[in-house]
């Protein structure tokens, strides 16, 4: 499937939604891929079932605080440099690239790499959403090592990380990314086609495009985009979606710390919604509590959207006074196993609450 | 030249002297090499003039704050892992290893690597003393790139740095070393035999052994070790040596910051010495001011020694109340060129004072 400009526009919206507030500003990534299309390059999306077991898939991504990205726009060569570094280390050429997460800019970086290098992009990712740390990948959960991993910046500097486990890979590469100015570009979790089929969250790029399309078409048909979204999601692997709150942003705390965007949003209820909702953020929205009671919790999606336009709002764009609607969505079963929750469940973010499925919390 | 246990003991003392307070506790490095000798391994020191132009010399070292090293003893395998990583990257086997600096533990790490791997150790280094940062090498001053560079820890994690210049190599690898716990083991500045002859400070390992021997023999002959040292140095490339102060440590400020041991020692004059000497430290002693007037300045050596025993005192061992004698020594001409001072002159440490040779300051 070749992507066109409309697909890119829809993807930017859908990836911001699936990014649950994180993953960086999708606008920047979209513009970079659009420029490739304008230059006559093409982005070829392939279904994971269509790639050979012997394929060499090298995922590419941005690493760092989304708040930094807004001021430090990439050239697009950084992620390619990391992919090339990994090819050199492995002594093999990549046959495909792939996202590591389906959120914001990281849904678009592999499209840019694919367009520039003529590599097809696998329609799958390793997070099924956005997560703040690199060990938080279904790839790693199901046995694919993240290393060797390459980290590059816009000046041509590169670090090749050979860590003994994926947490140490995250720890060391984060130190490098911070010293590269808070945002860097990576290639990691190089794997075979067979491993992609076994460990990736499938068809999340096309899902993001569909989410964007559903919202756009509802708006242009003067239908309620929230209703359109809630009736679309059950047709996907993300089968349960519900509005958990609606109100006004009453307070927004935010800081860039240890290479992450940390924060807390407070939302005062509006209309039939009463009380104070607090959403804790580490790059992504992690937990939503209403007057202290858990309403949704990681890894299920917590998406803050503009109540008027149904545009997803990333954490760095959240402002005092915005009227917002908070939606939570169930994640695919591959992300809810005990092994998966060991790597990106609530405890991995220092949250004391146990994981409870959004279906159960809403019941 | 095969080193024996007495050579190692003398080297530890001489390297602490040439380390100008930095480079880590030489005791630990000496014990590690001694264990190799006890196991029947040998340390083979070769003169730089004796190695072939086509040799592949891979220097090895510890990187980090000496204050950390005292609590985090290396196994000895870390530097070997870094050397192996670099060999793999270069696709060639090292023929020799070499110190990057002739100070404290970093004069002994290559001996350990050489003994374990059966590699001869080149009798030379890239600092002619100790310096706190990795771009501060005569190797780099005269055109040898520091990268590719490998950084390893005791758990088997490794980062291969491919930076565009030696300052960025220092910056990125320091971030990795900090996240490896404040001390890590490196291989860098891989170079040919011809490059060693052109860029290294020659015969500094044998010099350190001789300095240790001169002090030891003077003590055992009941001669004044300071006088013995001052009459020995003019026979070497470090041709000018003088006592600049003697007194009691009146105050010692010290902190580990950004991966370095930062500090300031205050010494109150004793006997014929009057006033307050302040010595600023970044791992090494950088400048000695007497009542605000410069008495010695980097890159010339500033060595604080015990007034009774003439033992060199490293910065982490400096204590309130110690009676000390401060000696300054001229460095070889290869370290005093404008290109060299651009890389490790006073301005590189944020010091406002221009470089003035110790010969001129003492005149």
UniProtKB/TrEMBL annotation, chains A, B:
Q: Which InterPro entries match?
A: S-Me-THD-like_C, S-Me-THD_C_sf, S-Me-THD_N, S-Me-THD_N_sf
Q: Which residues form the signal peptide?
A: none
Domain (S-Me-THD-like C-terminal) spans 165-357
S-Me-THD N-terminal domain residues: 6-162
Q: Name one Pfam family in it.
A: S-Me-THD_C
Q: What domain of life is recorded for the organism?
A: Bacteria
Q: What is the protein's name according to its record?
A: DUF917 domain-containing protein
Organism expressing this protein natively: Celeribacter indicus
């Amino acid at each position: 499937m070749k992507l066109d400009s409309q697909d890119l526009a829809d993807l930017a919206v859908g990836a911001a939604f699936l990014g649950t507030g994180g993953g960086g500003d999708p606008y920047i990534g979209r513009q970079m891929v659009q420029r490739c299309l304008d230059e006559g390059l093409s982005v070829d999306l392939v279904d994971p079932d269509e790639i050979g077991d012997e394929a060499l898939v090298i995922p590419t991504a941005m690493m760092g605080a989304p708040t930094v990205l807004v001021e430090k726009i990439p050239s697009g060569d950084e992620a390619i440099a990391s992919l090339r570094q990994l090819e050199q280390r492995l002594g093999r050429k990549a046959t495909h690239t792939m996202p590591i997460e389906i959120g914001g800019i990281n849904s678009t970086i592999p499209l840019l790499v694919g367009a520039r290098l003529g590599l097809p992009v696998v329609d799958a990712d390793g997070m099924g959403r956005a997560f703040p740390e690199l060990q938080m990948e279904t790839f790693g959960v199901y046995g694919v090592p993240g290393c060797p991993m390459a980290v590059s910046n816009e000046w041509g500097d590169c670090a090749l990380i050979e860590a003994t486990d994926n947490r140490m890979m995250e720890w060391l590469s984060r130190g490098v990314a911070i010293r590269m100015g808070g945002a860097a570009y990576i290639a990691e979790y190089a794997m075979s086609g067979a491993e992609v089929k076994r460990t990736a969250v499938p068809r999340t790029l096309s899902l993001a495009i569909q989410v964007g399309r559903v919202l756009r078409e509802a708006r242009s048909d003067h239908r309620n985009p929230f209703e359109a979204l809630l009736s679309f999601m059950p047709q996907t692997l993300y089968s349960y979606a519900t509005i958990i709150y609606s109100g006004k942003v009453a307070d927004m705390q935010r800081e860039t710390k240890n290479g992450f965007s940390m924060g807390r949003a407070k939302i005062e209820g509006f209309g039939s919604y009463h009380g104070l909702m607090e959403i804790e953020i580490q790059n992504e929205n992690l937990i939503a509590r209403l007057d202290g009671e858990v309403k949704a919790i990681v890894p299920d999606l917590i998406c803050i959207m503009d109540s008027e336009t149904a545009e997803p709002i990333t954490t760095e764009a959240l402002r005092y006074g915005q009227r917002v609607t908070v939606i939570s969505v169930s994640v695919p079963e591959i992300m809810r196993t005990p092994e998966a929750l060991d790597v990106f469940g609530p405890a991995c973010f220092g949250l004391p609450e146990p994981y409870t499925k959004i279906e159960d919390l809403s019941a």
